[in-house]
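This is your field. Pick holes in the following sequence-structure pair:
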Amino acid sequence: MTRPHVVVIGGGFGGLYATRRLARGPVDVTIMDSTGVHTFQPLLYQCATGMLSEGQITAPLRSLFRRHPNVRTLLAQAVDLDSTNQRVQALRPDGTTVHVPYDHLIVAIGVQQSYFGHDDIAPHAPGMKTIDDALTIRRRILDAFEMAESLPTAEQRQPWMTFALVGAGPTGVELAGQLRELATHTLSQQFRSLDPGQARVLLYDGGNAALASFGPALSRRATRTLEHLGVELHLQTTVTTVDACGLQITDRHGGTSRIDARTVLWTAGVAAPPFAHALAQATAAKQDHSGRLLVRPDLTLPDHPEIHVVGDLATLNHLPGVAEVAIQGGWHAAGQVLHAVAGEPAPAPFRYRDLGSAAYVSRGHAIVSAGPLRLSGRLGWLAWGLIHITFLTGYRNRAGAILTWMSTLASGKRREMVFPTRDPDTGQTAFAPPATPGPV
């Protein structure tokens, strides 16, 4: 007798926890992902700034499910859906097409970076969503210091020593803090004619506060810590254009100015990936202004009880876009599937249990918000570490992260400072001269 086939699209938190629960059930599972690895996104910024290696925050999906013979891993990217015949169309690594049939579908692909309609900004201001993004950012940051070292005057060095970040949410704040620590601790004794501590880190946000979702008290504490580190925080300020040499901003009074910065990083805004639009078209599901899918209380799409959408891609009751929502949603969706397979009544609608949020600001300082509990400083930092170690995938990654953090805290050194000098997309090095226009 053929067992029901469940297709899980996405190897992030939602897909991982859904597959973990399904792996013990009377179903066959295909987990489809475009990278083949589970990435612990909350620590991407530490990979980008040389503290943790990419191997310490990732785990191959094949390895995670090697002991579960009913789980198959497929390296492919979902591009379209035939909801009538219940098949997912996906692209293999070589660009050929594969059609994967399903009885139940769990979509957990997350979201991508949004540039608010200005996609021309993307080549000049990478986001922070994938391992590729983190390694690109590491290359740009370290390239900038190397370029500044080679230049003879302070005026020439200034644009290379100016780092602009857009978005003062957790990722932006964490990355800004790490940049200042990298400059003032790790790199402080490594250059001969350059003082890395003179690097400017500019953090822009259109809102009224950094880490506003943590509440006014924790936001103020985080702001004071950022200012003590030397991060220049510019609130109620929007970035309107970005190019290879800098950015243009509009301040709270409507004034515009140009900032020369050779490294611009984007951590503001999210949008649904292309498959979300294909899914909406195939099922007549509604989308919000970001392209995310409106789901029923049980995380299924209207008129399609066989399709679940979990994590950042789902819109329900203003749930936050955090890992815990994806984890609980994936687990719930898998439970729904197992109840359906067993012919049992569906469980209660999805209820999110808010276990809190945490953000790393600097060495020995983090903020944690969990219900009525508000922590900051060293106590918040210890709680932050415990939370992240708990959810890191694999004992080896947990042990490696702990040892690396202890070593970095004690010595200020970072071991993951190797970076590619050539852009993997364009093949161009950071040191290549601008292209010379041809004859007219």
Q: What stands out?
A: The CA atoms of residues 312 and 321 lie 5 Å apart. The domain at 5-34+76-111+272-341 is CATH 3.50.50.60 (FAD/NAD(P)-binding domain). The first strand starts at residue 5 and ends at 9.
